[in-house]
Amino acid sequence: MIEAPAIPEIEAFLKCRTPQAWVNAALAQLDILLIDHAQCEKKAAAAAMSLMHRHTERTELLKKMSQLAREELLHFEQVVNLLQERGIVYQNLSPSRYADCLRKHLRTSEEGRFIDLLIIGAIIEARSCERFAALIPHLDTPLAKYYRSLIKSEARHFVDYLQLAELYSSELIGQRVEALLQVEQDLIESPDTEFRFHSGVPTIDTL
To answer: Which domains does the chain have, with CATH numbers?
Structure first.
């Protein structure tokens, strides 16, 4: 068994850990897990590129998002290779409720929306990192080693997003982070009818 690395900064940031019921569902549906993981990597790259297009005057953002987009696309390619090796056909899956529900809480002002998007980016990266760690002890060796290798970059992405939010916000972001983390906790701990990488507690129909 391969052990997951310690991620104290991620565990201290998030308000809850992944429920064991989700881990059990993931192990029973590794094909869906991997396909949706690939989609998440592709979406993460697209989100970084979108921020770069919208905020061309923000040099620090351009540098961090450029690196992030490259890494996420590399991860996408790597997961597609894993799918091929395992005889799993890559396909488009319907998205989970997770990201859309978080974005429903975006503020409407220009700055508020921008800062919230950065905070949500940090939350998503932190949750991805935490889920890799939750899965690693239960996976076959090649997949466990691969997920272990991703934790370092995902943790850095979490830090990058949070630092950018702090850099560009005209006010302290602590309260806003707490509010969005509470929304995230509700999504992770509430029942979910569809299993995905960021889904909540699976219902009987999900299994």
So the answer is: 18-192 (1.20.1260.10)
